[in-house]
Amino acid sequence: MKKFIEKFQFITHDIPTLTHVEQAQTACSAGAKWLQYRCLTKDDAALLEDINQIAEICDDWGATLIVTDHVHLNGKADIQGFHMEDMDADFIKLRGELGEAITIGGSSNTLEGLLRLAAEGVDYAGFGPFSVTTTKPNQAALLGVSGYADAMQVLRDKEINLPVLAVGGVQLEDIEDLMATGVFGIAASAAINQAPDMEEAYIAFYNRIR
């Protein structure tokens, strides 16, 4: 089942200045059509409280709600999909558990990981990190523009049609060069929710990606 995948995906994050619900409201008010709720610090009751509020916001604005990990919450709230950060996750098994209607995304730091995600039938992939990021620090090598260009060329050569989103430290001035590599889109968190004006930052990113 082919899914709608948005070219600009906003990811909420634990930050002291804005709750996840506030981030969702501001992003949707700015025109967000895809929101990924990423919270790895709360118990199920608190997660569902957030998710139910964010689901209402997304429903009001016509936005897709994706939840990072927490697949055990499937069916307990109005969630359209899940993004798995575990790069060793079995996506074939996960698809069997969640069904065809649920959108499934996966993360990768390498071309080999992208190829596995494509083979296991994810609907889209987050590929990074592009640059230095404090949102989700890891030890993976920074890809830079050339890393995306090389990976996208391999996917084209293999005729693999996988929507790949650049993620990890992407700034507004990076978007044009990244989109020129053939990536499908961009995912961002800190560049939006830690900007002086979050709504203005969201709109600037959205317009640049288009």
From TrEMBL:
One of its GO terms (biological process) is thiamine biosynthetic process. Keywords: Thiamine biosynthesis. Pathway: Cofactor biosynthesis; thiamine diphosphate biosynthesis. GO terms for molecular function: thiamine-phosphate diphosphorylase activity. GO terms for cellular component: cytoplasm. InterPro entries: Aldolase_TIM, ThiamineP_synth_sf, ThiamineP_synth_TenI. This is Thiamine-phosphate diphosphorylase. The keyword Glycosyltransferase does not apply. Residues 10-192 form the Thiamine phosphate synthase/TenI domain. PANTHER family: THIAMINE-PHOSPHATE PYROPHOSPHORYLASE, THIAMINE-PHOSPHATE SYNTHASE.
